[in-house]
Design goal:
CATH architecture of the largest domain: Sandwich
Number of helices: 8
CATH topology of the largest domain: Immunoglobulin-like
Number of strands: 25
Shape: elongated
CATH superfamily of the largest domain: Immunoglobulins
Number of domains: 3
Radius of gyration: 39 Å
CATH class of the largest domain: Mainly Beta
Oligomer: single chain
Length: about 425
């Protein structure tokens, strides 16, 4: 009897639930029908990335991506609008939003195209390259149907026409050097630029007069004759060729400021020191090397770092190092022999064991057969020798590396005082 009552109760409850749920299900189906009938929805929002500032005539890269997943977005159109055009576009979009007329099918391309300049469409990587020819502040708009547009701002400025100049920081009297002029920012070579050299006592006066001319607003940039000002204080070296280059050899030692000038450009500047620089070698080798294994030694010119071919390399034990250093110093200070005639190689050969000569890359391979601490010396006639200590490690349990007086790798510094003693 009790079971029948329980079954009757369950049936009653189920009937009530069905009665309640049926209208709700019908209402949900009605809502779904309304969603489906309202048409496609907006798929997402675009974003655009571009430089905040560029120069007229300079190519830039713009990238469009989908905000939701940050993935590059191909096929998006990009337009450039001025400030007024961008304000009008935003006002129109806001008006449509307030009216409730803004929908997924809103033709943003037509709205943007009516106001801006079409730049192109993004490639498979979401990129577009463009060169603005006029300076202005532009608003870039990325657009594609079913997506809300992306916006960014770019300031396109006129490129300042200024010269740059490249030259060695140091040179010897009588040594031909190459001076190169180029346009700053683009790095394009500048032909027919005049190169002038000033001594240090005229530099400050020249800078003041050039600055005054630069700030003179009564003369246009194209008409400012910087060369006329430089001519008063410097001496003329020549004009650059089609590659923007000029070869020149200073005859007198001293410190100079090189100035590159051309009508319509701001001048370029570069210092140079002209003095007798002794030729010197540098030697590079690992500090610790395994016994019996080949090690590569490299010899190069200490001034220009060019590899030195046919330089001899000797190895000295510790007991012969100091004697060699004293004799080398005596030869360096011997004013009766010119720098080019000093035969350091012959002197090193007396005290050291010859290993070999460097190849065209300035390299020499050698295997040390005995463990210990050594000094390597690279020598070549006309060059101050280069030095490098090396420790040849023997058995694996030998973990203590003995102290060796060690200058920076391959460097025995040539001081200004030493330079002055060279011929």
């Amino acid at each position: 009897m009790k079971m029948k009552k329980w079954q009757t109760l369950v049936v009653t409850v189920m009937a009530l639930l069905l009665a309640v749920l049926s209208p709700m299900t019908a209402l949900a189906q009605s809502d779904d029908a309304e969603v489906e009938s309202s048409g496609p929805k907006i798929k997402g929002s675009l974003a655009i990335v571009a430089p905040r500032m560029s120069f007229a005539g300079q190519e830039i890269s713009m990238t469009v991506f989908l905000r939701a997943d940050q993935e590059p977005f191909p096929g998006a159109g990009i337009w450039a609008l001025t400030q007024d055009e961008a304000d009008a576009l935003r006002a129109e979009i806001e008006a449509l939003r307030e009216e409730g007329s803004l929908a997924a099918e809103t033709d943003y391309e037509a709205m943007v195209d009516a106001r801006g300049i079409f730049l192109g469409r993004t490639d498979g990587d979401g990129k577009l390259f463009h060169t603005f020819t006029e300076s202005n502040v532009y608003f870039l708009v990325a657009v594609k149907k079913w997506y809300f547009p992306g916006f960014t701002r770019i300031n396109v400025r006129d490129m300042s026409r200024a010269l740059g100049i490249e030259a060695p920081r140091r040179a010897k009297p009588g040594e031909e050097i190459t001076i190169t002029t180029f346009q700053r920012i683009t790095n394009d070579p500048v032909e027919d630029a005049g190169i002038w050299a000033l001594t240090r006592d005229n530099v400050e006066t020249l800078r003041a007069e050039l600055q005054a001319l630069r700030e003179d607003t009564s003369i246009t940039a194209e008409e400012k004759d910087y060369e006329a000002v430089v001519r008063v204080y410097g001496f003329f070296l020549g004009r650059t060729d089609e590659d923007g280059e000029l070869n020149y050899a200073f005859e007198e030692a001293g410190g100079y400021l090189l100035v590159a000038v051309k009508r319509g450009y701001h001048p370029g500047f570069a210092p140079i020191g002209v003095r007798n620089i002794p030729n010197a070698l540098a030697l590079q080798v690992p500090w610790v090397v395994p016994q019996g294994e080949d090690v590569t030694m490299t010899v190069f010119d200490r001034i220009n770092h060019n590899p030195m071919e046919d330089a001899g390399v000797w190895v000295l034990t510790r007991d012969r190092m100091e004697v060699l250093r004293e004799e080398l110093q005596a030869l360096k200070e011997d004013v009766s022999v010119t720098a080019d005639e000093r035969d350091y190689e012959a002197l090193v050969g007396i005290h050291g064991d010859f290993i070999g000569r460097t190849d065209e890359n300035g390299e020499l391979n050698h295997a040390f057969n005995e463990a210990g601490a050594y000094l390597l010396v690279a020598a070549k006639k006309g060059y101050i020798p280069g030095f490098a200590p090396v420790f040849v490690r023997g058995t694996p349990d030998q973990s203590i590396v003995p102290e060796v007086n060690r200058a920076p790798q391959g460097e025995e510094q040539v001081t200004e005082e030493e330079e002055g003693t060279e011929d």
